[in-house]
Amino acid sequence: MIEAGIASEIITPPRGEPLVGYFDPRPNTGAYDDLKVKVTLFRQGNLVTGYVSFDLCYLRMALVERMRGQIAAFGLTFAKNLIFHCTHTHTGPYVSAFFGEETVSPAYLDELVCKTAKAVRRAYANLAPAELSAASTVGNPCSFNRRYYMKDGKVVTNPGKLNPKIVKPEGPVDEEIAVLVIRQDGRIASLLVNLVNHTDTIGGNFVSADWPGRMEKDLRNLLGSDVMTATLIGCSGNINHFDVRTDADQTSYEEAKRIGAIYADIVRKLVGKAKKLKGDKLQCATEVVSIPCRVIEKADIREAEKIMRETENLNEEAEMTSEGLAAGAGPVLRFFAKELLAFAKEWSGVKRDFEFKSLKIGSDFFSVSFPGEPFTQVGLEIKAASKSKYNFIATLAMDEPGYVCMEECYARGGYEIRPITEAGLAYNAANIYIATGKKLLKRYV
Asked: Which residues make beta-bridge pairs with 44?
């Protein structure tokens, strides 16, 4: 028998706290909806594992370690079995320096650590027998590969809507949407939803959990009770919600509500079809892998230095939107040249250790976590190798090394390939991710 325990806490920052997700901080002027930390625990015998899900843009391992320490201070010894991951909302607060911006509020981080540990403690106290069921479907109407081959042969990220120079998307989309249903005492207590999309829909200066938050609200209405819904974002490094075949405005809170409603309807139908998992043996495993940052070549350093000289007196402000990045105007070139030089000085060739975590329930359910934002092909490779019916992949977990591109993509273009501070793993990092995921698949009997 498996027991489950759930709890959540509101982690919305105060008015005025800067929001992260773009290239400059934006002090928030209010909130559309609350951010939360959501805890889902599973226990069988002496083993406790599960998920700690944050409505945040990213996590750093140093922060995870602080949270583990606070959980241990409450007398709970299982924090190293938990998967700490984010939904990647771009309308949440800083949790560390980002693009060199030191805008972190120590008071907010203290509160975040405390609330996270309290939520874990309360979820542990709530452990009770649970019935677990799952369902999945293939068909995601809101996800698109955001990297496109252009007529000049290059690949551009977010090249703009109705751009006549677009030829075709560079790669696929993992279109699977899956749900794990946790029932207790004859009712649905909680849902875990796994799907692939980028959580950057709103923009502006208001706090929001973006479409995952709206999906939870809509599911509560559809299911008739305050069901907690935790969203696991799959491999979405090259995926977003922009449909370049239309000229519709897709950057607004209304768009987050639209996408949330679409996903809520799909999940509601899946809940009605969910089947009990086969077997209930609970297992978890961790692989710690050392991955080097890429080595910046001297020619790239010289080119970056040249760009810095040529743009030194540039008065034009950078349009750091997706379209501005695609256009590659002078301020954009200067920004990335500055980041490359900083990366070359501090991170070139530096090895970093990452935790890849997994859990398994019976024979049907397997879950693995990946740091950062791997491309969608990474998730597809893991699913193809798995014998489990339901494979839940949680990215933006246990640290943030940035985009993890497929090796062949680096020569093609797009802004995901560019190194920035603390983000620029070796060119073969995606292969290491896939190999590690497959290794974790084999850890279970």
From this structure: 47
